[in-house]
Amino acid sequence: MRLVFLGTGSGGSIQRFHTCIYVELADNRILLDASSGNSALVNASKLGLDLNTIHHLLLSHSHHDHSRGLEYLESHRNVRDIQQALNVYGSDTALKDVRNFFQAMNKDFEINDEGILRQGKSFTIKWNSVHEGDSNKIGDMLCKSHAAKHIAGAVGWRLECGNESVVFSGDTEFTENTIIGAKNADVLIHEAYGLKEDADRLKMVKHSSAYDAGFVAFKADVKQLVITHVSTDYHGKEDLLINEASEIYKGPISVAHDLMDLSI
Ligand SMILES: [Zn+2]
Ligand SMILES: [Zn+2]
Residue 134 belongs to what domain range? Predict the structure, then answer.
């Protein structure tokens, strides 16, 4: 398994790019979230990773820091005349929001229930609506979403192939659903926007503390925890996040940073 973190910052981060994770599981290659702007493309190119060769993108939710980079992924594919469509998977709500963004900003695009067509050419994007709990196959990889506690239509993802598994919490407050989704996973990538002492703010913005991330990792009995979606307040103070998560979870814990390339 290979995990490359192309963006690891929260929406308001001024040090890190927004969320996008490249996942390689056996021969399957996908993206988790699209970051915002062109940052996934910029960081991928620094690592020699051509995102035009990846044809599947799983969205956690429609917030701008996770979905708006899709416009740049699409436009990059169109410019390079990539014939294969980028398949975008998400809840009905998330896909509807993303389609509305596209339509508002690109009035001349032909956008329908199936995908996005450019000048009557082949699809550059295809929408794949998923229902929580259903297993979807991409290649020989199983992708299963579970409801997150964040905004309408937000989900987390579990990816499995053979005996390897990785789970992404997406943006979420603590929820039992992540524990169920992450059961015995090799890697849990969980957001942590702050510490327990930030509880009031975390409740307001519907995010997790590092302790929540550790608690989920402990309860789900995962093999390792990677914390991401780091806010400006904890950039440079990542040890505080690790220390708090390790109060409850005794396995290996790291905090992701942009361009982190993890082979497991
Ligand atoms: Zn976010
Ligand atoms: Zn969000």
Answer: 2-263
